[in-house]
Write a structure and sequence with these properties.
46% of the residues lie in helices and 10% in strands. A hairpin with a 2-residue loop joins strand 7 and strand 8. Helix 6 crosses helix 7 and helix 15 crosses helix 16. The protein contains 25 helices and 14 strands.
């Protein structure tokens, strides 16, 4: 009987096709020194491992010792990548148990450096690379993926990686990192996820001349042929995996991001995290900050440094939230100002400097060319940086913000760290330590006058894993904008009295899996109410999710 049980276990472990050394080479099924002696005999791997049998906790401890010995963050990222490549469950256990340490290493800010070095550090292939030359064979390439039950795809064309610009196929680190967070922060089973990079060339001359560049060495494809290629990819995904497969667009350039969102949002299960995820987490920050400052969101005046896809997405979601609080559309728009490389968005500017998304926020007032003068005249209570231009929140601007309100909100959201608009220390110092500060990359606490000020990381990972969990668990399709308002409201509601007292505007990352669970349930409630969920409604959504989500432990 024992032998039969073990043989059945082997069939499950090997997915019916793998045994022996193949299992050790399969990162999702490999347990390394955690294989029992009986398992080793049945799998014919006895002697291929040292004789000791170690628990997962012991192995996590050993990994942390090794990780802490490494001084350089990129090398730490590569160490975690190598662990991911050989033992996924151990990787996710390590990350889940040490989220504050590991999150900045597997995603922002370190992932930006990893993408820049992708050509030199490329190792085990992860994800699918589909080039424009493969347009006729996309369906066949998707069939090369070893898993049939793919429910979540993160796709990029690499043109606007964080604040680093066009990195071509070397931007693959972003889809890989995003999907790792799907699993680590929200329990989405890793075998149901697939990273994809669409290679349409690059306009980065340095990469075109780099012998280690891994992509097509040609200028970027644009126009009708580009859209036809993306259309072909979307259609092939539906044919291969089904209409309810989530497709998350990531780090597409501004000129394409909104265009693709509008093109697909009503006919495919898709969203754009740079636009909608960033908007939702920023709205959550504003709703949470209200608890700290006691200033209702509708009493603020908002100024954006940056009017591209991220800025326009945030502004639109804030407008929707202000309208739901009782303001008219005109009143909501009157509270939102936008500033870009051409100055304040005003009707006196040339029409070709606007986009369809930001033109609604153009003001009927004289043109202002500098950000400092804009702050002085507009008198915002909230300033939000999303242009990827570092150090633009000068001491003069920060001091002006402190004159405008008792508690200014300074949101320096650009990534990576060298692109941030100001540091936490600068924000606190030049606002007399009165501001609420949030940034895209993490900053250490600031101690002044015996008081500790805790910067908040306005990180999309608070939002997109929970939304993706809801979409994949309940088969939500399409994904309307209201989903992201619900997610933002749910995130803000999870701020504890202790968080408020400490000046935080986000829950700690240690509770992120529960945060994602709560967001998924809130989004699920909305989806069933609106009739956009395609599975029968579970009586207990949380219990249903727990019965299906991924736990970082060995089979």
């Amino acid at each position: 009987m024992k032998l039969q049980i073990l043989k059945h276990f082997v069939r499950l472990l090997s997915n019916g096709s793998k045994s022996g050394i193949d299992v050790l080479r399969d990162p999702l099924r490999n347990k390394g020194t955690s294989f029992t002696l009986d398992e080793r005999r049945i799998l014919h791997i006895q002697g291929l491992l040292p004789p000791s049998v170690h628990s997962m906790d012991v192995k996590v401890g050993r990994c942390m010792i090794n990780l802490n010995k490494i001084q350089d963050d990129l090398q730490k990222h590569l160490y975690l990548t190598s662990l991911y490549d050989r033992d996924e469950r151990l990787f996710y256990k390590l990350v889940s148990d040490n989220i504050d340490i590991c999150l900045p290493l597997i995603y922002t800010p370190t992932v930006g450096k990893a993408c820049q070095e992708f050509g030199q550090t490329f190792g085990r292939p992860r994800g699918l690379y589909i080039s424009i030359k493969d347009k006729k064979y996309i369906r066949e390439i998707l069939c090369n993926w070893t898993e049939d039950d793919v429910r979540a795809i993160v796709v990029t064309d690499g043109e606007r990686i964080l604040g680093l610009g066009d990195l071509g196929v070397h931007g693959m680190g972003i889809p890989i990192g995003k999907l790792a967070l799907y699993t680590a922060l929200a329990g989405v089973p890793p075998e149901q996820t697939m990273p994809v990079t669409l290679d349409v060339g690059t306009d980065n001359e340095e990469l075109l001349n780099d012998p280690y560049y891994l992509g097509l060495k040609q200028k970027r494809l644009r126009g009708t042929e580009y859209l036809e290629f993306i259309d072909a990819f979307m259609e092939a995904v539906v044919e291969r995996f089904g209409r309810n497969t989530l497709i998350q667009f990531e780090d597409f350039a501004n000129q394409n991001a909104f265009k693709l969102l509008e093109r697909y949002r009503d006919i495919y299960c898709s969203f754009n995290d740079d636009i909608q995820g960033t908007a939702a987490v920023t709205l959550a920050a504003l709703l949470s900050a209200e608890k700290v400052s006691k200033r209702p969101i509708e009493d603020n005046v908002f100024l954006f440094q940056g009017a591209g896809s991220a800025g326009s997405g945030i502004a639109n979601l804030i407008k929707m939230s202000l309208e739901s609080s009782g303001l008219s559309e005109k009143e909501a728009i009157s509270k939102i100002y936008m500033f870009d490389k051409d100055g304040l968005l005003s009707v006196n500017r040339s029409p070709d400097t606007f986009t369809d998304q930001n033109v609604v926020f153009a003001k009927d007032m004289p043109h202002i060319s500098t950000l400092e003068e804009t702050v002085e005249i507009v008198k915002p209570t909230v300033i939000i940086g999303v242009a990827g231009v570092g150090n633009v929140f000068t001491p003069t601007i920060l001091k002006s913000m402190a004159k405008n309100t008792e508690t200014p909100y300074i949101f320096a959201l650009s990534n990576p760290t060298d692109k941030t608009e100001c540091t936490a220390e600068e924000a606190y110092k030049h606002t007399d330590y009165k501001c609420i500060f949030a940034s895209g990359s993490p900053f250490d606490a600031i101690v002044h006058g015996g008081k500790t000020h805790l910067p908040s990381q306005c990180n999309n990972s608070y939002i997109f894993p929970g939304v993706a969990l809801a979409v994949t668990m309940f088969q939500i399709n399409p994904i309307p904008e209201k989903v992201f308002i619900k997610a933002a409201e749910c995130l803000a509601e999870q701020l504890s009295p202790e968080d408020v007292k400490a000046g935080r505007i986000f829950p700690t990352f240690q509770n992120i899996r529960q945060v994602s669970m709560n967001i998924a349930c809130a989004v699920g409630d909305y989806a069933y109410k609106e009739g956009i969920a395609n599975l029968p409604e579970p009586e207990d959504k949380a219990a249903y999710i727990r019965s299906h989500w991924f736990e970082p432990k060995y089979v």
